[in-house]
Structures are given as structure tokens and as C-alpha cells.
């Protein structure tokens, strides 16, 4: 084991944050041998990127069309904050002794930072990175992802509380052969047009099959549509759209000349909330699809009814007591309770990124949450608040090293963002008193003369103790040319 880093978030073991919150924690570095370094710095950043390849046909110099593989990609950085916790950027070489060291980090996530996402052709990633700037050798880089959720309150738009309702019909040529032209009619409705993960999408579906075609199955699907944008090729923006199924429900068959009623529900799994911005390189939307499956041989295809659906992070007020469209609903500012945070149900991942973001899942168990007096509460408290959290217990670690040749002040800036906090440092400074800064907390023996046959180090490579240099040939025995081989 050379080195390892364990990241811990203050009072937030799952690492889930809301846009605009303060993220803080510690990075515990463990080394089993001394290292020659220049500095150690921690970066907290968020960025989005898309990338995919397509075959395009272009006209070559000889005028003939040729096919080539083109890569479309784009990258957008939302925020980035660097904190030097040991040494200085581009400074002199220092020695990091063997031991365990804990470095704090702290910054504020921007209010408009988008929700974490991991998809087939792109990602929106938020991570903490500790970098050991090595002298001569490659840098050591350690990363830890965390989830960020941009709030999407479904109570801010009145149309989200409106039900979805539609009647569609379809005729089949199979029945026209025998002189029948009666259609298959689907009448479907839901309680709302927006939901949150964990909530039941109650629907009322009536399939009146007047045709001579049998309906094999009535299916209900929740589909996630991801749009990836790239502008690396120059003038024209490229677009890649994928559709994946995140939830599925089978209601049953309906025979010809029969009518069936389905009062069922579909549970929304942990999934990415609907994208609110039109400018993001990755946009997520949802479709609620009702399908009356028929035999392909009968012609005409399936009877399909699609609704655009919105997935948010704060449920509609009073939706905890939803029993379905047309059913009596309770009034009041009720919520289902405090959500849990579960990993994304999707199995897609962008290249080598295996991190699964966590999203709020509400416990809809038929028991509405308690109403706040006079509607004082705007909604459930989704994320831990720093001011309400108990202080974390102090960690046991080796004191952070202080360079003997460095300044007497703290080896890293105590206020990298003066505009955000002019009076207090955004993270704890070195807890040692000023007097202790003069002497490093580890032995600093000066370079001593190496004994014959002793162990010494040259440019990071150790010479074995039993190494014996090759003796030089006497001048009298040297060849005339002055060059000899041994």
C-alpha cells in the first residue's frame, strides 16, 4: 500500500446535498512511507460532459462520398474551488512523512448547480479531489463523488396539480375484411400531471374493445427521455436522444367485443428529476405511456396513449392521501414525510463512471404527513442543515506536517474566498498554537554524511546497503586509447 485517502462529509454520510448548500468534510490521507512532494490541494467541482460517436458520410477530395467515425463532445464547468492544504502551488520540494493526516475542505455549491446524472452518453458529476503534487513523479489523485439535487417544488406551478385525461380510439383492417369497422377505445386519466419518486401514479383506465381484434395485454410504462447535446464539431449543434424504461405495469388482456376497467397504480422509482433549464447539455424528461397490445398480424399496430409527465423533488400538497382520479381527496398542506435517498434505478453509465447518484424517495404508505399550524411549513426538510447538525467528533490523526523551511504562518490560505466570508475562514485553520509552528511535529534531521556502504537516496531511488562500486583501473594498466571495459 503506497497511499490511500478516505473522504468523509460532515454530518452527511450519504453525501447528498441541495444546490446552494455548504459542503464540508475531511480527507484522511494515509501514507506508509515518506514522500517528496511540492504541495497537496483539494478541489471541489461540478461539471457536465457529453460524448458519443457516429458514422457520417462526407465528400472527399476526389469528390466521392466516404464514411468516417466522428466524435461529438462538449464539456461545461459549473463551479470549481481549489484549496491548498499543505505547501504552495509551484513551491519548493517538501517531505511528507509517514503517517495519517486529516485535511478539511469546505465550499458552497452554487444555487443553480444542476442535479447529478449518469447516463449512456453523458454525465453531470460533482466530486471532491485530493491531489498530491509530486516532484519528478506523477501526481497522486484521489476522488470521491457526491450527489447534488437541484430542488424542483411541484407546488410552484398550478398545472402540475391538474389531472391527465384523454380518449383515443383505433380501427383495424382485420375487422374490415368481415364487414366490421368498430374501433378499440381507450379512456385513461390520472390524479396529477407531476409526481415524485416513491409516489404512486394512480390511473383509471377503461378499454372498450368493440373491434374483432383481441388485446393481448394492457401495459403502463414510465419512460425516461435523455437528450444529449454537443457542439464540438463547429457550426451545427448535435443532438442524441435515448429512451429507457424505468417502471412497468401489466394490467391484463381484453377479449374482442369486451370492456374492461383498470384502477391500478404505478410506483415512481428513484430516478433523475425532470430538467428545468433549457440550456443544460443534458436534459431529462418523462413520458407516461399506456399501451393496448395487439397481434401484429391483425394490422394497424397497438393503441398507444402518451402523456408528458414531470418528476420533481417536493410533492404536491395533499397528494399523500391520493386514492386515484375521481376519488375524494383530503385537503390541507400534508406531505408524506421525510424522504430517504436511494441510488438511481437506471443501469446506464457514462464510460467508466460507476457512481450512482442518490435521489429523494418519499414514503407514501397511505398515511399523510402531519400538517403544520397555519401552513407555516413550505415543505419537508429534505437535506441536513449545518446549523441544526451536531458537531462531529474529533478524529485521531497525526498532526499535519509543517515545512521546516516554510513560513511561520499556516501552510495554506485561511480565506481563499474573501468576498464570500470576509471575517471568518471558510474552513478550520491549523489548530496548533503559533509557538508550535516554529518547530515541526516530526523529526527533521539534517543531511548527514553517508557511511561507506550505507543506504542513501538519489532522485527518489534507494541504493542497497551492500552495493559496492566497481573499482577504477590503474592508469598504468589502461589501454592506449584511454578507454577500458570491465
First and last CA, distance: 40 Å
Q: What is the total tally of β strands? A: 24
Largest sheet report: 6 strands, antiparallel
Number of helices: 1
Class based on secondary structure composition and strand pairing: mainly beta
How large a portion of the residues is in β-strands, by DSSP E? 35-45%
Portion in helices: under 10%
Work out the radius of gyration: 32 Å
| SSE ordering | EEEEEEEEEEEEHEEEEEEEEEEEE
Overall pLDDT score: 78
- CA-based shape: globular
Low-confidence stretches: 366-395, 403-462, 475-486
Which helices and strands occur, and which strands form pairs?
Elements: E1 3-9, E2 16-18, E3 22-31, E4 35-59, E5 65-87, E6 94-96, E7 99-108, E8 117-118, E9 122-134, E10 140-145, E11 147-149, E12 165-170, H1 173-177, E13 184-190, E14 194-195, E15 200-209, E16 215-230, E17 238-254, E18 258-267, E19 282-294, E20 303-311, E21 340-343, E22 358-361, E23 457-458, E24 461-462
Give a short summary of the structure:
The protein is mainly β and 486 residues long. 1% of the residues lie in helices and 43% in strands. Residues 366-395, 403-462 and 475-486 have low confidence and may be disordered.
General description of the model:
The chain is mainly beta and 486 residues long. 1% of the residues lie in helices and 43% in strands. The strands form seven sheets. Strands 4, 5, 6, 8, 9 and 10 form a six-stranded antiparallel β-sheet that branches. The protein is globular and about 100 Å long. Residues 366-395, 403-462 and 475-486 have low confidence and may be disordered.
Amino acid at each position: 500500500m503506497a497511499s490511500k485517502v478516505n473522504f468523509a462529509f460532515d454530518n452527511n454520510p450519504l453525501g447528498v446535498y441541495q444546490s446552494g448548500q455548504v459542503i464540508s468534510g475531511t480527507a484522511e490521507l494515509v501514507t506508509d512511507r515518506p514522500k517528496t512532494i511540492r504541495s497537496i490541494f483539494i478541489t471541489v467541482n461540478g461539471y457536465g460532459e457529453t460524448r458519443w460517436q457516429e458514422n457520417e458520410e462526407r465528400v472527399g477530395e476526389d469528390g466521392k462520398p466516404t464514411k468516417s467515425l466522428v466524435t461529438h463532445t462538449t464539456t461545461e464547468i459549473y463551479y470549481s474551488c481549489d484549496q491548498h492544504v499543505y505547501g504552495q502551488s509551484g513551491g519548493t520540494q517538501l517531505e511528507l512523512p509517514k503517517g495519517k493526516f486529516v485535511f478539511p475542505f469546505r465550499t458552497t455549491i452554487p444555487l443553480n448547480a444542476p442535479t447529478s446524472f449518469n447516463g449512456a452518453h453523458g454525465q453531470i458529476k460533482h466530486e471532491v479531489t485530493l491531489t498530491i503534487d509530486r516532484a519528478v513523479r506523477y501526481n497522486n489523485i484521489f476522488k470521491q463523488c457526491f450527489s447534488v439535487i437541484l430542488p424542483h417544488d411541484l407546488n410552484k406551478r398550478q398545472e402540475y396539480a391538474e389531472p391527465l385525461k384523454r380518449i383515443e380510439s383505433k380501427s383495424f383492417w382485420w375487422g374490415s375484411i368481415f364487414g366490421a369497422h368498430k374501433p378499440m377505445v381507450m379512456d385513461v386519466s390520472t390524479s396529477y400531471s407531476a409526481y415524485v419518486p416513491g409516489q404512486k401514479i394512480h390511473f383509471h383506465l377503461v378499454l372498450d374493445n368493440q373491434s374483432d381484434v383481441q388485446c393481448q395485454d394492457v401495459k403502463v410504462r414510465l419512460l425516461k427521455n435523455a437528450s444529449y447535446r454537443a457542439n464540438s464539431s463547429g457550426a451545427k449543434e448535435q443532438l442524441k436522444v435515448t429512451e429507457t424504461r424505468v417502471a412497468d405495469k401489466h394490467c391484463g388482456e381484453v377479449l374482442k367485443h369486451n370492456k374492461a376497467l383498470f384502477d391500478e397504480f404505478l410506483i415512481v422509482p428513484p430516478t433523475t428529476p425532470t430538467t428545468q433549464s433549457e440550456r443544460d447539455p443534458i436534459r431529462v424528461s418523462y413520458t407516461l405511456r399506456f399501451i393496448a397490445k395487439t397481434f401484429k398480424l391483425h394490422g394497424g399496430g397497438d393503441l398507444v396513449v402518451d402523456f408528458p409527465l414531470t418528476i420533481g423533488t417536493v410533492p404536491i400538497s395533499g397528494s399523500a392521501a391520493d386514492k386515484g382520479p375521481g376519488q375524494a381527496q383530503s385537503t390541507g398542506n400534508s406531505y408524506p414525510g421525510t424522504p430517504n435517498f436511494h441510488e438511481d434505478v437506471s443501469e446506464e453509465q457514462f464510460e467508466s463512471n460507476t457512481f450512482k447518484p442518490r435521489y429523494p424517495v418519499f414514503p407514501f404508505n397511505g398515511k399523510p404527513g402531519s400538517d403544520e399550524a397555519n401552513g407555516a411549513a413550505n415543505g419537508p426538510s429534505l437535506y441536513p442543515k449545518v446549523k441544526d447538525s451536531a458537531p462531529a467528533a474529533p478524529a485521531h490523526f497525526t498532526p499535519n506536517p509543517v515545512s521546516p523551511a516554510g513560513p511561520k504562518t499556516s501552510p495554506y490560505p485561511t480565506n481563499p474566498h474573501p468576498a464570500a466570508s470576509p471575517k471568518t475562514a471558510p474552513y478550520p485553520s491549523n489548530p496548533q498554537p503559533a509557538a508550535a509552528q516554529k518547530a515541526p511535529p516530526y523529526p527533521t534531521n539534517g543531511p548527514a554524511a553517508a557511511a561507506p556502504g550505507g543506504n542513501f537516496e538519489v532522485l527518489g531511488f534507494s541504493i542497497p546497503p551492500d552495493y559496492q562500486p566497481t573499482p577504477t583501473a590503474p592508469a598504468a594498466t589502461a589501454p592506449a586509447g584511454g578507454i577500458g571495459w570491465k
